[in-house]
Amino acid sequence: MRKQILVTGGVGFIGSHTILSLHNAGYEPIIVDNLSNTHTSILDGLSSILGHSPKLHVVDCCDEEAMNAIFKLYNISGVIHFAAFKSVAESVAEPEKYKRNNLDSLQVILKLMDQHQVHHLVFSSSATVYGQPDVNPVLEETPWKEAASPYGWTKQEGERMIQAFAQSHSTFKSALLRYFNPIGAHPSGKIGEYPIGIPNNLIPLVNQAAKGQRELKIFGEDYNTPDGTCIRDYIHVMDLADAHVKALTWLEETPLQVEAFNLGQGKGDSVLEIIRLYEKVNQIKIPFEIAPRRSGDVEQIWADVSKAKKLLNWSTRFSSEEALLHSFQFEKMIDQ
Ligand code: UD1
């Protein structure tokens, strides 16, 4: 029998790809999603790739009663908690909304895991916990700077809540996965990043610029980097999805209780480099203009991923080229 894994936010960008990785690794994912920032066409894409409809409960993770009913319904052996708001700009405008949604949902998950004796949690954290590091690449033990946004603060606080919970619950274990910049899409083009409304992140905006739907703005060309634009560590979402399965199986075996892992390619690309690469692999011109810096942006950050390689036996399989190709492939499918 397949082990049942509760996946909150399983219809989202990283969540949906992880559903496939879980299924391929022999688990049965149970999705909980309030569908607040994804399109239901992702469900059609998922069902088409899987060959069946995944189990889905349209529930908000902050709703303890509804979540309790789901925990009762299944024999859950682990939880992957993606469900969260993730727009830096929106979090600045509405900090309370972020605090409530991102931390209350985690509180509910931890409480129910305790009540139902579920011991393994994979948590969606972010490179945002580091702020602007003094030295790159960043290691997991790099001390945190003050969060640059309320969104970033919810990720720092989420990690702290999990650490504190682990101290009073000796059988509880957790992998804190610090994502760098997830991009790409399933190579079939059937699922990918499909946010509601105007996207915030670079690649969905580049995709829309490629289709002539908007003009792309590069936020700042006067940073202290070789070409003046910010540097990030872009990682293919398929590689990220695999890391969740590796983290889950690692939790089943490790004597360690709570560990953080950086997940990136381990190299930095500038905004301009990414746009040029996108143009090259997709054979398309991206019109852009240079705009002022965006508030809250860090100048440059990329990951040291040796810990995930060593402990999780994980490494990336996809290049930035493939990620950008798959991203645009999915974007073109949206219109069909
Ligand atoms: C941000 C968060 C990250 C979070 C992610 C999820 C910070 C510092 N970063 O990543 O933790 O997980 O969002 O949403 O909190 N850019 C442009 N033009 C655009 C959009 C972006 O030039 O129209 C640039 C940005 O300035 C940045 C790069 O592209 O240098 C990547 O931006 P984005 O995709 O928004 O991700 P981050 O800000 O790195």
The ligands found in this model are: uridine-diphosphate-N-acetylglucosamine
How do the helices and strands follow one another from N- to C-terminus?
Answer: EHEHEHEHHEHEEHEEEHEEHEHH
Our estimate of the beta-strand percent is 15-25%
Total helical elements: 11
The CATH superfamily of the domain at 4-184 and 234-264 is NAD(P)-binding Rossmann-like Domain
Q: How are the elements arranged and paired?
A:
Layout: E1 4-8, H1 13-24, E2 28-32, H2 41-50, E3 55-57, H3 64-73, E4 76-81, H4 88-93, H5 95-115, E5 120-126, H6 150-168, E6 173-179, E7 181-183, H7 202-210, E8 216-219, E9 231-232, E10 234-236, H8 237-253, E11 258-263, E12 269-270, H9 271-282, E13 288-291, H10 306-312, H11 320-334
Bound molecules: uridine-diphosphate-N-acetylglucosamine (UD1).
Describe this structure in words.
- It is a single chain.
- With 336 residues, this protein is of the alpha/beta class.
- It has a domain at 4-184 and 234-264: NAD(P)-binding Rossmann-like Domain (Rossmann fold).
- It contains 11 helices and 13 strands.
- Helix 1 (13-24) links the parallel strand 1 (4-8) and strand 2 (28-32).
- The protein has helices at residues 13-24, 41-50, 64-73, 88-93, 95-115, 150-168, 202-210, 237-253, 271-282, 306-312, 320-334; strands at residues 4-8, 28-32, 55-57, 76-81, 120-126, 173-179, 181-183, 216-219, 231-232, 234-236, 258-263, 269-270, 288-291.
- It binds uridine-diphosphate-N-acetylglucosamine (UD1).
- Uridine-diphosphate-N-acetylglucosamine (UD1) is lined by residues 86, 88, 126-128, 148-149, 152, 179, 181, 200-202, 205, 216-219, 230, 232, 271, 294, 297-298.
